[in-house]
Amino acid sequence: MKIIRNIGLTIFLICFAVFLSLPFLGKYKLTEKTFTENFSDVNQQKVLKPALKDVFDKEYNSNVAFFNDYNKAFDDANKDFRDKKEWDKVINDNKILDITKSSSIGFVKDNSTLLFIICFLISALGGIMYMVPALFIKPVAGIKNDYIFKRGITSRGIIAFCFAAFLIIFYIFLYQKPAYLSNWVLLMDGLSNTLTGGNSSQWFLYGFLYCLVMSVMSVRMYIKYRNNNYQLLRTTSVLFFQIAFAFMIPNILTNLQLPSMDFKNIWPLDYTFFFDYRLTELTSNGMLGYWMLGWGIFLIIVGVPVMVYFFGKRWYCSWVCGCGGLAETLGDPFRQLSDKSLKAWKFERIIVHSVLVFAVVMTIAVLYTFFTGSPKLLGIDTYSIRQTYSFGIGFMFAGAIGTGFYPVMGSRVWCRFGCPLAAYLGIVQRFKSRFRITTNGAQCISCGNCSTYCEMGIDVRAYAQNGENIIRSSCVGCGICAAVCPRGVLKLENLAEEGRFDAYIRPEEKAF
Amino acid sequence: MKIVIIGNGISGITTARYIRKQSDHEILVISAESDHFFSRTALMYIYMGHMKYEHTKPYEDWFWSKNRIELKNAYIQNIDFDSKKLFTVKGEEISYDKLVISTGSITNKFDWPGQDLKGVQGMVTKQDVELMEENTIGVTDAVVVGGGLIGIEMAEMLHSRNIHVHILVRDNVYWGGILPKQEAELVGRHIAEHKMNLITKSELKEIIGDENGKVKSIITKDGKEIKCGFVALTAGVSPNISLVKDSKLETDRGILVNDYLETNIKDVYSLGDCAQFRNPKENHPPVEQLWYTGKMQGRALANTICGTKTKYDRGIWFNSAKFLDIEYQTYGIMLKEPLSDEDTFYWEHKDGKISMRANFDKADGALRGFNFFGIRFKQTVADDWIRNKKDIGYCISNLNKGFFDPEFYKSYHKDIVEHFNKVQPQYQVKIAKKKFLVF
Ligand SMILES: Cc1cc2nc3c(=O)[nH]c(=O)nc-3n(C[C@H](O)[C@H](O)[C@H](O)COP(=O)(O)OP(=O)(O)OC[C@H]3O[C@@H](n4cnc5c(N)ncnc54)[C@H](O)[C@@H]3O)c2cc1C
Ligand code: SF4
Ligand code: SF4
What residues does the FAD/NAD(P)-binding domain cover (chain B) (predicted)? Predict the structure, then answer.
């Protein structure tokens, strides 16, 4: 069994190495034909073609060299307009990802199907081969956190920092310089064409990787928590919502040329929901568009409070949400790294609520511009507010920090410190909900397993050892505290609201 | 007033915290084991890598100065009760107005030959775990002597390092002195399932060392030799009273105290693992070596010290433990045999890993206590039923009010009720309806 495990790991690592090498492989040759396919506007062609004439048909051995020449040519073409301040004529979008993809020649292009199979399918298989032997090595069901704090990857060793660096770099390229990832995106074209009817973008790649990583890591969840039905169902649920709602349905809608929408993504997590281009898209698509708009608003106004009242914020954070889904699968090995100090809790409250306020203000500004047409609100350019939010929160916080810091600060950095929707759900959970984690009398032995494995950094023990129920706005109801408690002290449940804050007092001590 | 507490375990610390809640007395807690209070119950998880030492500290380090509880890391060697002074090993002198002694337990050793060899140890302190880390390097086989709660924990620890474990127990089943036969067998099967070797009806005779003074095998009383590189001594713990052994303080197994946790000397109190009750309640142990009891005693004592004389009352007994992967919760006094006026009902799931037992009054059917294996049950419900002498039929029918397993777990209520009706045909109980949404 150990051999299978090691073979699996080896296969995975080899595939991963191949995957990592792809951006550095391949040759690039831009032809005039490719160019005209991407820039169909005749006026643009007129401007760009002369500037690009040296680039056309030249073979590049690295994408860096290609980008240099291409970008330079592009800038030259625009220079004239810029100098003359003819801003409307400047061609902003250089379509570099599409251009690079379609200019790719040689190894990667020719073997894209094979590479797809190696990078994604065989590597996933390797991962699964690594995980499944656990069933035989530790045949008795029961949660085992053995070695978690003795292994570098799960206890902030050097390898954990390397992994964090990799994730952060990945996000930076994904959001800011996707052209460097063109060879990866290229591999996705086949699948993308089948699903969406068009070539793949970096977001299609990201969506696919997201689903793949979640699926493979779910196998780990299913094995590790196989004695716990709550965990099994919850994992299935997040996986389903990710694959069906976040990935398949939007892509199919695109294929049908309908506005694409992730029906479970709720503003303000889905911060672009009220952006002009999305509102326009929805309102120009007849009944269906209006229905989608209505659904989105319904979720915000009715869905969230009603569901949180009955089930707590977990219905979203641990059962539906994509960010939560990744945190509960890929992030599970890192959950114990969250900071439990009181100080961290203070920071958390300030930061997460500030992001919520920021999201609301940004959305008001954007809507103001949408309805009045005036680009400024109180003298501030609404577009720049929106850009700041997208960059600062959407990319930096949710992406690079939120996921990149998994191996350093635990799996829910974004959910805990950054997510404005979590803040909103949390306020309802704290003040008007039937959800609580009940503490079983005085059975707590203060061992600390619950606090250690709470990904939200809640010091569960502080409540449990006092016989108090755990009612915290940040609790995502993952149920792990209850699962790892060796004395059966904790239970997540929805009960009558009254008495949820009452602590257990032993009858003998009532008089104290 | 200056209150000095020796021992920063759960009982000493609880006393300190509750004194602080009610008063402004000066509080000093002295301990030689660690700078800060940590959870002794979590020692095993440090070794297994589930947690680090930091995680076992229930309070952050700033907590103590914020609450003006002074901590001192020192070993007390001597107490002069007349002049109310303590002396540390280093010769420091500390005076007190009131003294609380909560020095905890030490591992039982029964003068086995070879018990001081390298690789032979118990597990009570933080240092023991560090030692165990060292002692188990390169070990392939280990023997656990005595099958109590610490024994099974040490077995699990060793098992997590892929060390083959032999558990030596005196009775013919695991923990037979405490658990009823069926439950003991259930645990025994679970131990076997984990490929550990439970050797019943056998006792340690001697431990054999190699030329380097490290253990290489043990010999049982029936002459069997078991090769091993590590021996865990877990035949119970006893009160750590060496500090006061030959003093004016009255001791027996532990420091003798009354129900107010007062010793025979004025202004000197004792509680927790090191204290022994002069008049324990019927069927209750005179020395309570439990986390919960240390906590409850501390709360009562804090009241007494602060002027409201408060009797320590254990209330309805409860406890819990975990045998490898099987959780155990018990409520009420549940001995290995029901008391003479009690009848017992036992149900076991067909897979043999989940069970429940209820003891009840033969005459009037009043519930006396529960044992649960692999089922979590609410203390509030069990406590209420036992306290108020609820009829067994009512209890079985209403078990679902107390089940505490996580959501979506299978309920065994129907099975239990059917079995109950079969073995106690005079009862024909039905499952009580549980409201789906409670408003
Ligand atoms: C491995 C293990 C697992 C356990 N699991 C459970 C469980 O699951 N449930 C449960 O209810 N109970 C459990 N217990 C029992 C429980 O931990 C004890 O009952 C409890 O810790 C006792 O607390 P205490 O405050 O009386 O003493 P301790 O916690 O033992 O504290 C005594 C302190 O006093 C210090 N001390 C002693 N003498 C001196 C001196 N002369 N000078 C200075 N300092 C001194 C010691 O170093 C020690 O730090 C477990 C015990 C062990 C060892
Ligand atoms: S308190 Fe428990 S259920 Fe809530 S987030 Fe933390 S571990 Fe999950
Ligand atoms: S895991 Fe359970 S016993 Fe341990 S501190 Fe948390 S609630 Fe208490």
Answer: 1-285
The CATH code belonging to domain B120-235 is 3.50.50.60
Of all residues in chain B, the one with the smallest CA distance to A492 is B406
Element (H, E) at A82: helix A63-83
Residue B407 DSSP one-character state:
T
For chain B, which residues make up each domain, given as ranges? 2-106+238-305, 120-235, 318-423
**A444 pocket-lining for ligand 3 (C-beta < 6 Å):** yes
Query: pLDDT, tens digit, for every residue of B306-333?
Result: 999 999 999 999 999 999 999 999 999 9
**Residue range B21-58, pLDDT digits in tens:** 999 999 999 999 999 999 999 999 999 999 999 999 99
Q: Which domain holds residue A439?
A: 435-510
Dist. CA B15–CA A300, nearest whole Å: 49
pLDDT digits (tens, 9 = 90+) for A417-429: 999 999 999 999 9
Q: What is the dihedral of CA A473, A479, A481, A482, to 10 degrees?
A: 120
Return the bridge partners of A470, or none.
A437
Ligand 1: which of A443, A445, A487 to mutate, judged by most atoms within 8 Å of the beta carbon?
A445
Tell me how far apart the alpha carbons of residues A76 and A83 are, in angstroms, rounded to a whole number: 11
The fold for domain B318-423 equals Enolase-like; domain 1 (3.30.390)
| Lookup: tokens for A218 | 């779910």
Q: A42 in a domain, yes or no?
A: yes
Helices (H) and strands (E) in chain A, counts: 29, 7
Could you give the number of structural domains in chain A? 2
Residues 6 or more apart whose CB falls under 8 angstroms from that of B71 comprise B8, B28, B29, B30, B31, B35, B36, B64
A347 at the B interface (CB within 8 A)?
no
Q: What is the C-alpha separation between A265 and B298, in angstroms, rounded?
A: 51
Give the separation between CA B165 and CA B143, rounded to whole angstroms: 6
The Å distance, Cα A324 to ligand 2 centre, comes to 13
Give the strand pairing for B69-73 and B26-31: parallel
**Inter-chain residue contact B291 with A445, CB threshold 8 Å:** yes
Q: How many Cβ atoms are within 10 Å of B376's Cβ, its own excluded?
A: 23
User: CB neighbours (10 Å) of residue A176?
Assistant: 12
Identify the domain boundary among A56, A72, A105.
A105
Interface ipTM = 0.95
The single residue listed with the structure tokens 């975990």 is: B322
